[in-house]
Design a protein that fits this description.
CATH topology of the largest domain: Rossmann fold
Structural class: alpha/beta
CATH class of the largest domain: Alpha Beta
Radius of gyration: 25 Å
Number of helices: 16
Distance between the termini: 37 Å
Largest sheet: 8 strands, mixed
Number of domains: 3
Length: 443
């Protein structure tokens, strides 16, 4: 546990500590700060003055200055990772794109920092949109120091794109007491009680974003976040989805994509993410093959759990009907969506589910878990089906229903396509998020 550093008074004060506090206006020289807070400020670039500075009397307030509570036209975004695959990374890129657009249109500056990306200046472009960010190469102290250094500009707003980064907001407020803050949540990471420092940071944020009503309910009931601080903001397709996935020159299928009637699933194969239910999908194949002997299952992704999934397929006797596809391009993934007949990911831990949107945008009926945010994306019986996690019989029955009635499956796929077009395009997300930014920045 970090030690508490009491700022002593008068002659008992060690040299330099009060000067450090005075140097960063907004810090109270008589308040108790934890030692790691002072260290973080020092790493942000503080230097102690060499000349002797007159010491204020204990009851004398710090010199007033308009800079004490002044905020500048700066937006800061803190992200766990941006230049990598994954739903959280994709959501982070969407947030950064919109923040950069908002800042540019309002003659503001934006600064984006990433914890896990390589320690260099990155430029990320999608279509006609671009933003720049700096990585910290998984260095937590480096990331914190960069954040504190950026805070010396006294930003108007700081966004933490994951609850794990939210505690840093407390330290940033030491330098910018008037800044507004947004913390983004994604799903399963807030469905169980968080450590007290993260939970407190969530509860103190000006706004907490949730991609679904289900996750918003967990924020209220599990984390204790006030209802009036929460905004439900569903994620959306990429801004360049139409060109990236449905370009004029479609990519060919990967060479190992199976022929015939294919069920497609997309997601990471990690031992820590077995809640995605890919094993249940494999087990369901043993039932389905009794009636549909030519049925194939194509699973796109990567991760350390492939061996275990292959073991499940062998034990079920369906290994020749289960195909693992890795290292494919966006164009090849688009071709997989187009060639498949059904998309299925019977997960119990999706806070939202980008892959459901992608499959729906390709006009495919979708099967997901009846948990988390998936039922808010998939309309049961309209755009697909939702099933209980681990229920092999219910999953197999839902797939069999779609295989038995291709026309009904086609209608569900078309209903899903229309829903995505009306509710989950990037412009819809962008307008909603800009409205939140405007409320906070202009208040």
């Amino acid at each position: 546990m970090a030690k508490s550093l009491a700022i002593p008074t008068a002659a008992a004060q060690p040299f330099g500590v009060r000067q450090l506090c005075c140097r960063f206006r907004g810090l109270n020289p008589f308040q108790k700060y934890r030692l790691d807070e002072i260290v973080c400020i020092v790493k942000a670039g503080a230097t102690l003055p060499h000349s002797k500075t007159p010491q204020p009397h204990r009851n004398q307030p710090l010199p007033s200055s308009s800079r004490v509570c002044q905020t500048h036209r700066v937006l800061i975004g803190l992200f766990p990772e941006l230049n990598a695959p994954g739903g959280i990374q994709r959501a982070g890129r969407h947030l950064a794109f919109v923040m950069s657009e908002y800042a540019a249109s309002h003659k503001m500056e934006s600064r984006f920092l990433s914890l896990n990306d390589t320690q260099e200046l990155h430029r990320m472009r999608v279509g006609d949109r671009e933003f720049v960010f700096t990585g910290a190469d998984r260095g937590k102290l480096k990331f914190a120091a960069n954040a504190m250094r950026a805070t010396r500009r006294r930003p108007k707003l700081v966004l933490a794109a994951h609850p794990n980064l939210a505690p840093l907001l407390r330290y940033m407020r030491l330098l910018a007491p008037s800044m507004k803050s947004i913390v983004c949540t994604h799903g399963i990471e807030v469905w169980e009680p968080l450590p007290s420092n993260r939970r407190n940071a969530l509860c103190r944020a000006t706004v907490v974003l949730s991609p679904s009503r289900a996750t918003a309910d967990h924020l209220i009931n599990v984390q204790g976040v006030s209802h009036d601080r929460i905004r439900v903001l569903p994620w959306a397709l990429d801004p360049d989805f139409a060109t990236k996935f449905t370009g004029a020159s479609p990519s060919p299928l990967p060479g190992d994509f199976p022929p015939g009637r294919v069920i497609l699933s997309v997601g990471r194969w990690l031992a820590t993410e077995r809640y995605k239910g890919m094993d249940t999908l494999i087990l369901a194949m043993s039932r389905l093959l009794l009636r549909w002997p030519d049925l194939q299952l194509a699973i796109v992704g990567s991760g350390d759990d492939r061996g275990w999934l292959e073991h499940v397929a062998r034990d079920s006797g369906v290994q020749r009907h289960v195909h693992f596809l890795t290292g494919i391009s966006y164009g090849e993934l688009s071709a997989c969506y187009e060639a498949a007949e059904i998309f299925a990911l019977p997960s119990r831990g999706e806070g939202f589910g980008f892959v459901y949107l992608e499959a729906m945008a390709h006009g495919k009926p979708v099967i997901g878990g009846a948990h988390g945010g998936a039922p808010e994306v998939i309309q049961d019986g309209v755009t697909g089906y939702v099933v209980q996690h681990g229920d092999t019989v219910q999953l197999a029955t839902s797939i069999d229903t779609l295989l038995s009635n291709p026309e009904n499956a086609r209608q569900m796929g078309e209903a899903g396509r229309q829903r995505v077009e009306h509710e989950y395009r990037f412009n819809t997300f962008s307008k909603a998020f800009k409205k939140i930014l405007r409320e906070l920045c202009e208040s």
